[in-house]
């Protein structure tokens, strides 16, 4: 405010707020870590989702730091270690997933999530300063401007301007925040590159699997089946739901159902294999993660100016060499599942409908 009222000031209030925010974001070294410490109390019977999620994460890792119910603790909100899932989709962790005990955050060198703090404090405050800038006012054609009651009209114009100003500030802060040397623009490009890396990893994996196990690769990456089904907590239930979706697709009858006896027979047939394939699926999953990271590495080598250099990747995800496909000795079980799948499809939908579907 002092700067805005200076007799020599030539900037608008909006421009001053932009400069101050930009400096606060870019030169974050000016802030003391202690300024960001917050406190809360853990009450098991209280529906405080952030605290409950945080305590749940800490159990087993830092049991000695968890206070008795009702005890207060200090924490900071930090940037998550992982920004994207394996598919390249940006993760949106909750506050409870980003909270850390203060000494743990310091020990691990965690970077503070400044956006969380700006959103909680500064954005709302700054919105009040800039909401009267013309860019945040409703247009003459806006419905608000047609309101006859002057008091109601003023109130709605005020609410509209504050929401617009807050939205603009949120975008401004996100655009200017730099995390580990990565800007928001680079982060968007990185997400697109990681999605591409995931697709390329699947293509590479399919080719490697086909060379080793032939058509049984469909158990890993088929039109309906995938290795991830066998990693589910209840793979038989997932297999059954997937099977019925396939049946209804082939029969073109979205209401088609199967009696309990048939369901029990099919599920019983499939139930013989998940435990037999557990080791194979676990090893393959580890391989596929490495393959995705390798494809991401290639993206960073190819377009570092767009998504950041290799050095900006997480260290455990830097896989420079193409990983080797693990040995798969369960080919017999894979073939059996594949055969069972089509056997039961034909039994329910008929050979003609199945052939027509497969040959289209």
Describe the structure.
The chain is mainly α and 360 residues long. The protein has 2 domains: 2-176, Topoisomerase I, Chain A, domain 4; 184-359, no CATH class. 57% of the residues lie in helices and 4% in strands. The chain contains 15 helices and 3 strands. A 3-stranded antiparallel β-sheet has the order 1-2-3. The chain is elongated and about 85 Å long. The relative contact order is 0.08. The mean pLDDT is 90.
Secondary structure blueprint with pairings:
Layout: H1 2-5, H2 13-26, E1 38-41, H3 49-58, E2 72-77, H4 95-98, E3 99-101, H5 102-108, H6 114-130, H7 150-176, H8 184-213, H9 218-221, H10 235-251, H11 260-270, H12 274-302, H13 304-307, H14 331-349, H15 351-359
Helix pairs in contact: 2-6, 6-7, 8-12, 10-11, 10-14, 14-15
Instruction: Report the sheet with the most strands, covering strand number, pairing sense and barrel closure.
Output: 3 strands, antiparallel
Shape: elongated
Oligomer: single chain
Strand order across the largest sheet? 1-2-3
Tally the structural domains: 2
The tally of beta strands, per DSSP, is 3
Strand pairing plus helix content: what structural class? mainly alpha
Instruction: State the distance separating the first and last CA atoms.
Output: 70 Å
Give the amount of beta strand, in percent. under 5%
Radius of gyration: 28 Å
Helix-strand pattern: HHEHEHEHHHHHHHHHHH
Q: What is the residue-averaged pLDDT?
A: 90
Helix share of residues? 55-70%
Number of helices: 15
Poorly predicted regions: none
Protein name: DNA-directed DNA polymerase
């Amino acid at each position: 405010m002092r700067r805005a009222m200076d007799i020599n000031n030539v900037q608008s209030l909006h421009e001053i707020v932009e400069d101050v925010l930009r400096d606060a974001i870019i030169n974050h070294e000016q802030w003391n870590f202690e300024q960001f410490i917050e406190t809360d109390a853990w009450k098991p019977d209280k529906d405080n989702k952030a605290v409950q999620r945080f305590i749940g994460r800490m159990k087993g890792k830092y049991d000695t730091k968890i206070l008795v119910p009702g005890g207060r603790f200090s924490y900071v909100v930090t940037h998550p270690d992982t920004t994207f899932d394996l598919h390249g989709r940006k993760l949106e962790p909750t506050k409870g997933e980003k909270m850390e005990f203060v000494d743990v955050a310091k020990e691990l060198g965690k970077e503070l999530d400044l956006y969380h703090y700006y959103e909680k404090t500064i954005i709302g405050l700054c919105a009040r300063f800039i909401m009267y800038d013309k860019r945040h006012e409703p247009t003459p054609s806006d419905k608000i401007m047609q309101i006859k009651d002057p008091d109601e009209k003023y109130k709605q114009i005020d609410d509209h301007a504050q929401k617009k100003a807050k939205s603009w500030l949120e975008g401004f802060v996100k655009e200017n925040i730099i995390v580990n040397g990565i800007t928001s623009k680079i982060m968007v490009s990185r997400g697109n590159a990681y999605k591409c890396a995931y697709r390329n990893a699947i293509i590479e994996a399919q080719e490697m699997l086909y060379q080793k196990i032939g058509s049984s690769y469909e158990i890993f990456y088929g039109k309906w089946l995938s290795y991830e089904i066998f990693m589910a907590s209840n793979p038989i239930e997932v297999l059954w739901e997937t099977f019925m979706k396939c049946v209804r697709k082939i029969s073109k009858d979205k209401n088609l159902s199967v009696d309990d006896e048939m369901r029990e027979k099919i599920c019983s047939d499939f139930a013989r294999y998940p435990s037999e394939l557990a080791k194979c699926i676990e090893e393959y999953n580890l391989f596929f993660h490495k393959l995705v990271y390798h494809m991401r590495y290639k993206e960073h080598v190819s377009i570092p100016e767009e998504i950041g250099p290799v050095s900006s990747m997480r260290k455990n995800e830097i896989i420079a060499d193409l990983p080797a496909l693990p040995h798969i000795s369960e080919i017999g079980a894979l073939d059996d599942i594949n055969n069972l799948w089509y056997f039961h499809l034909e039994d329910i939908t008929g050979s003609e409908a199945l052939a027509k579907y497969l040959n289209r």
